[in-house]
Amino acid sequence: MNIIDSMLCKGCDICISVCPKDVYAKSKEVNSKDVYVPYPANQEACVKCGLCEISCPDQALYVDREVE
User: Is 37 left (phi over 0), alpha (psi -120 to 50) or beta?
Assistant: First the structure.
């Protein structure tokens, strides 16, 4: 499961652009900081490569690599 902390995310969308499997999409609703936070819309496609996690400048994203 991929988790995005909406309190840390600034909506830069880097996670959306670096994901090779198009896991993320931009939310249609703003959070409390008026930011459209990405969310894992296609979670089942995630291969847990971690590109989104290491590319996030605010460390707002976590990729759980445990076997589900």
Answer: beta
